[in-house]
Design brief:
disordered N terminus; alpha+beta; about 375 residues; 6 helices; single chain; 6-stranded antiparallel β-sheet; 22 strands; about 30% helix
Length: about 375
């Protein structure tokens, strides 16, 4: 009927084009006809019918301020061999407390000891030659003063004296190096600590650079956790550490530090909390880092795990736009806990996410 009305108006405009009054009547008819046509419906902002969704809010649904971490030793050393040799003596075992300078194991250093003995003998020979050259040079000087020898003879005696002195010095240095190398076959503890791992057994062949054992200082331990860069604590905040199994639920650190390095893959920064001396923990234990609620909660964004779409290397969610359409958007996820997963990048507070990705894909 609308098309017929428009044809009728066009006919009237053509028929009465020459008359102003008729033209005014035609325009009035066109306005009445436009008023009768229903306006086009605007784009819907609400979510599609039957598609459940959730509005993303700062702090996430989990309202958690805990981040998983691990106990580390501030001073942990991998003791390695500096010289080759077979392990002939092994005193240390995993879990032993050792003192600084204590012999932990020995390598077969008989060849090195023999070389050190030979170097010592060469030092004695060079010293005797030096002493003889010294006395000869003194006699030659006396003879020269009395006019019994020429200047050339005195210079030859002086040259022999300097050569013997230099050879004796070189032999002493070589002997000292041989004794130092001989001492490397006895592996000693660098400081007071606990042996955490022994990597060799009796008879193993040690090579330069090969790890022999691992030890750490139990007086200096810390908890390290990866925290999103948006949730890094402020300088005036007071983070706490928690190690499951300890009597005290929360531990106030002696000091804490946020390292100035951001992981480009996860957008997290390392947070280190130094534990008080005497805390009964060991490196490798599971721990948590608790941040003050206000700053951490405001920065975290979490969504239900069921809303995540995983296709090969793609991790995404369906975001419902202002037109009511569900669009697939790639996101970067953080740790998951209690049915919620943290979103590190790709979403912002106030956006609506579809809870059922399959239904959202069918309704696109």
């Amino acid at each position: 009927m609308q098309a017929a009305g428009e044809e009728n108006v066009n006919f009237r405009l053509t028929h009465f084009r020459s008359t102003p009054a008729c033209l005014a009547s035609a325009l009035l008819a066109v306005g009445l006809l436009a008023a009768l046509v229903p306006p086009a419906r605007s784009a819907e902002v609400a979510e599609p019918a039957g598609l459940a969704s959730v509005v993303v809010g700062a702090g996430g649904a989990g309202r958690t301020t805990a981040y998983d971490g691990v106990v580390e030793a501030v001073r942990q050393t991998v003791v390695a061999a500096q010289v080759p040799g077979a392990v002939v003596f092994l005193q240390a075992r995993a879990g032993d407390r050792v003192k600084a300078g204590q012999v932990l194991l020995r390598l077969d250093g008989r060849a090195a000891q023999q070389q050190a003995a030979a170097a010592t003998a060469q030092v004695l020979a060079a010293t005797a030659t030096r002493d003889a050259a010294t006395k000869e040079f003194e006699r030659q000087k006396q003879l020269y003063q009395k006019g019994y020898i020429s200047q050339a003879a005195l210079e030859r005696a002086e040259s022999q004296f300097k050569t013997a002195h230099a050879q004796a010095t070189a032999q002493q240095a070589s002997a000292e190096a041989a004794r130092t190398e001989s001492g490397l076959y006895a592996v000693k503890a660098p400081y007071d600590g606990i042996v955490s791992e022994v990597s060799v057994v009796l008879g193993d062949m040690a090579l330069p650079g090969r790890a022999l054992l691992t030890m750490y200082d139990p007086a200096a331990l810390r908890v390290t956790a990866a925290v999103p860069q948006t949730a890094a604590p402020a300088p005036d905040s007071a983070p706490q550490a928690e190690v499951p199994g300890l009597p005290q639920p929360r531990i106030a650190p002696v000091r804490w530090q946020v390292l100035p390095a951001v992981d480009p893959a996860t957008h997290t920064v390392p947070l280190r909390l130094d534990l008080p001396a005497g805390t009964p923990v060991s490196p490798g234990m599971f721990a948590r880092v608790w941040l003050p609620g206000a700053a951490a909660e405001a920065a975290r964004i979490a969504i239900p795990s069921s809303a995540v779409v995983r296709r090969a290397e793609l991790t995404a969610v369906y975001v419902i736009g202002p037109e009511g359409r569900a669009l697939l958007r790639q996101v970067r996820l953080g740790p998951a806990s209690g049915g919620q997963v943290e979103v590190l990048a790709g979403l912002k507070a106030g956006e609506r996410v579809a809870l059922d990705p399959q239904a959202a894909a069918r309704g696109r």
